[in-house]
Amino acid sequence: MYDVTAIGELLIDFAPLGADTYGYPMFAAKPGGAPCNYLATLAAYGSKTAFLGKVGVDAFGRLLIRALMSAGIETSGVVEDPSVFTTLAFVTLDQNGDRSFSFARKPGADTCLRFEELDLSLIDDAKVFHFGTLSLTDEPVRTTTQKAVDYAKSHCKLITFDPNLRLSLWDNPDEARKQILWGLRYADIVKISDEEVDFLWNCSAQEGAERLVDEFEVRLAMITLGSEGCFLTNKYAAVSAACPPVNVLDTTGAGDIFGGSAVSRILKLGKAPESLTEHELKQIAAFAVTAASLSTQKMGGIPSIPDISDVFSRGA
Predict the structure, then answer these.
(1) Closest Cα partner for 291 from 251, 248, 258?
(2) Alpha-carbon distance 184 to 167, whole Å?
(3) Does residue 14 lie in a domain region?
(4) Which residue among 41, 69, 182, 289 is least crowded, i.e. fewest CB within 10 A of its CB?
(5) Measured between alpha carbons, how far is 51 from 163 in angstroms, rounded to an integer?
């Protein structure tokens, strides 16, 4: 039995290391992909997880499978395809550690996953099914993801969703907005950033959270606010949490680590998300925002997940 199974992108994040003596940028290859950062966080904090995705039959694909295994994620659902290359993402950082991405994905292996390649038993045996929108940008993985979400919903799985907006991967903003709204209609728990709320509705984070709960019937909305912390709400309670002070090096994966941390606490509580009390939401928010903040002190996604003892020692 798995706590969480996720579908989506598995890729190499090339994290910047500065420049060589000729001024050319240098990069370090780090395992990444939002759903896998999310699963690795859950695994690090005691949950059993599995992944559905595709890599190429190449050095990077093998590296990623090994990385997932080392993180404690079940990899039997990872398809290896010799006809496509493993997806790559090159990360650049501004002076505040905020990142932007350039993707080598035309196509990348993650976009070529077909529904008939899925091991549906990994969904059958899970409590929670998770997805994001990078697997909704292209075919055939868009249809694959939509069918998998339908399948999970029809089998009464708790659905978690992270829009994880990367506009450069979409043909146009309207298509991105359409697919995010589709995902929101299926989701029980949504982790979304204030920037993504503004993209969808041009409103505040709190107004967006209320819209998710009231209009989309999301059972728990979790809004990340960057360095300002987070805002969580269900039908009966709403809380905020601030970030602890940290020296930010790289924000890659911080949102994924927030989501995985929060869901790990929800699973520990064993309660329906709409039944969580104000006190319980405060505990979840504090833990998740602390884990995400601490992760920004290291490079990459999976390699930056902090030890649970470090999260609690910072007052989470």
Answers:
(1) 258
(2) 18
(3) no
(4) 69
(5) 18
Number of domains within the chain: 1
Give a three-class secondary structure readout of the chain: CEEEEEECCCEEEEEEEEECCCCCEEEEEEEECHHHHHHHHHHHCCCCEEEEEEEECCHHHHHHHHHHHHCCEECCCEEEECCCCCCEEEEEECCCCCEEEEEECCCCHHHHCCHHHCCCHHHHCEEEEEEECHHHCCCCHHHHHHHHHHHHHHCCCEEEEECCCCHHHCCCHHHHHHHHHHHHHHCCEEEEEHHHHHHHHCCCHHHHHHHHHHCCCCCEEEEECHHHCEEEECCCCEEEECCCCCCCCCCCCHHHHHHHHHHHHHHHHCCCHHHCCHHHHHHHHHHHHHHHHHHCCCCCCHHHCCCHHHHHHCCC
CATH number of the domain within which 172 lies: 3.40.1190.20
Query: What does the alpha-carbon distance between residue 131 and residue 221 come to, in Å, rounded to a whole number?
Result: 15
Q: Give this prediction's pTM.
A: 0.94
Tokens of 210: 């209320």
**Domain range holding 302?**
2-9+33-86+107-313
Torsion angle (degrees, nearest 10) of CA 34, 36, 41, 42? 120
How large is the average pLDDT for residues 226-238?
A: 95
Q: Is pLDDT above 90 for 96?
A: no
Convert the pLDDT of each residue in 257-288 to its tens digit.
Answer: 999 999 999 999 999 999 999 999 999 999 99
Q: How confident is the model at residue 249 (pLDDT cuts 50, 70, 90)?
A: confident
Tens-place pLDDT, residues 169-190 = 999 999 999 999 999 999 999 9
